[in-house]
Amino acid sequence: MTEIAIGVVGQDRVGVVADVTRIVDGLGLRLTDSTMTLIRGQFAITLICAWPPGRDREPAVVRAALAPLAADGSMTVTVTPLPPEPPVAGTLPYTLTVHGTYHPGTVAALAAVLGRLGINVTDLVSRLSGTFYLVTAEVEVDGEVDLEDVSEQLDELGARLRVEVNLRPGEADVL
């Protein structure tokens, strides 16, 4: 089964979800995974869709069908073919929170530490309210990773940025 990622970003308006999903459905695509969110008036949609067996098409067909959404310049649409998803085994879900006074580069510094430790970020949300900054992330930690080392490095990051950093076991998605 061929999968594609569809991204739609732009000025929010009533009906955007209906418009995008109507087009996807009309093409015969199966919507398998999605995330949709509103951030400061901008709506962002990411869809993972699959063609049913025997109905693989070129991404250009999908781009052309979605083009009217971007015709007035208020939206940007991307369509990307996806390789088969590699199996992930031996990872454990964790939730990571960072909170405190906003410092530029907080997410970049956090991502660098996690990347060095081999920890995969599966979802991340950040919010700024005045000078207070909150980052919440869902991460996957390989079962072989030394959690004591992870805690030490996250504590060092928190001290350097003068923020609180907490890592706690999460719950695995169950389908």
Could you explain how this protein is built, in words?
The structure is a single chain. With 175 residues, the chain is of the alpha+beta class. The protein folds into 2 domains: 3-82, 2-Layer Sandwich (Alpha-Beta Plaits); 91-169, ACT domain (Alpha-Beta Plaits). The chain has 4 helices and 8 strands. It has a 4-stranded antiparallel β-sheet with strand order 2-3-1-4, with helices on one face. A hairpin with a 2-residue loop joins strand 6 (120-129) and strand 7 (132-142). The two termini are 20 Å apart.
CATH architectural type of the largest domain: 2-Layer Sandwich
The tally of structural domains comes to 2
Low-confidence spans: none
Number of helices: 4
Average the pLDDT over all residues and give the rounded result. Answer: 90
- Which sequence of SSEs, written as H and E, runs from N to C? EHEEHEEHEEHE
> What is the CATH superfamily of the largest domain?
ACT domain
Oligomeric status: single chain
Number of beta strands: 8
Evaluate the radius of gyration: 19 Å
Strand order of the largest sheet: 2-3-1-4
Task: Briefly note the structural class of the backbone.
Answer: alpha+beta
Provide the helix percentage: 25-40%
Overall geometric form: flat
Percent of residues in beta strands: 35-45%
What CATH calls the topology of the largest domain is Alpha-Beta Plaits
Distance between the termini: 20 Å
What is the CATH C level class of the largest domain, in words? Alpha Beta
Largest sheet: 4 strands, antiparallel
